[in-house]
Amino acid sequence: MILLYRGKSWTSRLIEWFNWSRYSHASWTFATSNYESLMGDLTEWEAYTHGGVEHVKLVGHNHTLGTRVDLYELIKPLNNSDIALGTRFLEDQLGKGYDWRGVFHFLTRNKKNNPDRWFCSELVFTLLCTMGRSILHRIMGCQVYPGQIATSTEIRPVGYIVLGGGFRVHKWDEAALPCGRRRLKHKWDE
Questions:
Q1: Which conformational region is residue 189 in: left (phi greater than 0), alpha (psi within -120 to 50 degrees), or beta?
Q2: What is the mean pLDDT of residues 38-61?
Q3: Sorting pLDDT into bands at 50, 70 and 90, what band is 135?
Q4: 25 burial class (0-12, 13-18, 19+ CB within 10 angstroms)?
Q5: 97-98 and 117-118: which strand pairing?
Q6: How is 98-140 classified by DSSP, letter by letter?
Q7: pTM of the model
């Protein structure tokens, strides 16, 4: 499951503004949702600014309480082989540094990839490609920002959680969007 964060810090707000998006961070969990709560493996895989690629013990562990995290699932579910491939890929990335240069390439529009460093959305996008799920076409992982992931027609919103409020999944609703923004209609709305 893809986790897209609506960060609260000034850095998060700057990332959201720069990318014309409501998301400042992306990560991955093998947890599932029954549309009421998150279940199963509640660990989180992420490329985080302070520790690089990490496998943290609980979703949201590195983030501020009260942060909203939107949940997206793949329309075509993963099978055991996909999960094994994805887990192996993520384990191989553990400990690799955060790709600050990659983030700054968004400013210069320079397409450079560093295989020894990752930023959050690049890691999630590459993970999905490794598992055979190309959610965005004709784009390199080093060009993908968090909000861009949410535009894929290969995923659908499940709902959202609020860090510190347990793992209760809230329904996706217009009122929950920040600043009175209206959600664009997507393929799954029809």
A1: alpha
A2: 94
A3: very high
A4: buried
A5: parallel
A6: E-HHHHHHHHHT-----TTEE-HHHHHHHHHHHTT---SSS--
A7: 0.85
